[in-house]
Amino acid sequence: MIKTLKVRLYPNNQQKILLEKHLGSCRFVYNHFLDIRNKYYAEHKSDKKKGLNAFDTMKMLTQLKKKTTWLNEINSQSLQHSLVELDKAFKSFFRKNTDYPNFRSKKGNQYFIVPSGFKDKGSKLVIPKFMEGIEYRDESVIPDKIKQIVVTKDVDRYYASVQFETKENPERGKGTIGIDMGVKAFITASDGLQVEPLNALRKKEKSLKRQQKKLSRKTKGSENRMKQVVRVKRIYQHIRDMRTDFNHKVSTAIAKHYGTVVIEDLNVQGMQRNYHIAKSITDQGWYQFRTMLKYKLQWRNGELIEIGRFDPSSKMCSRCGSIKHDLKLSDRTYHCNTCGLVIDRDLNAAINIRNIGLIKVGKGIPEFTPVESATAAELSKGGLRVATL
């Protein structure tokens, strides 16, 4: 099993300069050979060999380093891996999985990959060209069997994502639930667990508007404007950190206590067309939560089932199965006109999501069970607001 441990790095001033050189040089090599591959194809598209591959560009990199001497300051394996990433981008495009590779910008994601030559030395991470080690602070212990390290920059912080192999086999959860994701409640589970939303963007909205207003008054190209840009970026960074921490806590608790989880394939772009709730939907981070939940369930040999977006989860009665066509978004309580069931709207949807998902994979529908106290207690410990319906 491959896992990733992300730690924050605390480089000294000299190491910061060298890290910036690594980030800039890897971006330069990627862009340089993207341009070369584009030109080669334009000149040879009628020939048998229409394009270049990673091996071709690596041979050309050796010649480039003789002319561009400052590239010798950079770890050669990281430069080569930039060409591997470029080749992957082309292959993904040819498989029609992604768009055509674009040139990398300073304003985009800044990273470089270290495929080998690393080790953990106490509280320092040793990688090529940083043999004295870069200090990091994390309670987790970096394992010995490291496969590769990805060094990233986020505003003014540096991180190392350490990918390692482990034989850990955590115990699979025992419960089965359906999850309805929403705005009023971040998640509502079919067993009655309900977690209130974090709304990180709304909490920092006043501060963000204030700093953006100051930014608009700064002269373009001035040093004060660049400083203000960093202040705005730090607020966005804080919002991302809050949301990521929240999603990690919720997804971990669910994956630990439930072996089978059923969710709905939401049409987020379509939902965002409703300007009344567009900002609240964007603030939830549903895609990130679903991604985290998926891989954490896989770690524990759990199962994530996804039902279609057109399945009638909200309008169908979870007791008798009748459809209520006149249900409005403002109706927070579901009243069934056929069997008389009165139930919380989100809880009704979560039960339907669970039932529809289990039927689709050929499993029987379990009886309604109350919320597991261990799950609610674990989420409450993390400072999350949890309710039971």
Explain the overall architecture.
With 389 residues, the protein is α+β, with helices and mostly antiparallel strands. The protein folds into 2 domains: 2-165, no CATH class; 175-388, no CATH class. It has helices spanning 13-44, 54-67, 76-94, 200-203, 205-217, 223-257, 268-271, 278-282, 286-299, 345-360, 373-381; strands at residues 2-10, 110-114, 119-121, 124-127, 130-137, 146-154, 157-165, 175-181, 187-189, 193-195, 258-264, 303-307, 333-335, 342-344, 386-388. It has a 7-stranded antiparallel beta sheet with strand order 2-6-7-1-5-4-3. Strand 3 and strand 4 (124-127) form a beta hairpin. Helix 6 runs antiparallel to helix 11. The mean pLDDT is 90.
Distinctive features:
single chain; 389 residues; alpha+beta; seven-stranded antiparallel beta sheet; six-stranded mixed beta sheet; 11 helices; elongated
Mind sketching the topology for me?
Blueprint: E1 2-10, H1 13-44, H2 54-67, H3 76-94, E2 110-114, E3 119-121, E4 124-127, E5 130-137, E6 146-154, E7 157-165, E8 175-181, E9 187-189, E10 193-195, H4 200-203, H5 205-217, H6 223-257, E11 258-264, H7 268-271, H8 278-282, H9 286-299, E12 303-307, E13 333-335, E14 342-344, H10 345-360, H11 373-381, E15 386-388
Helix pairs in contact: 1-3, 2-3, 5-6, 6-9, 6-11
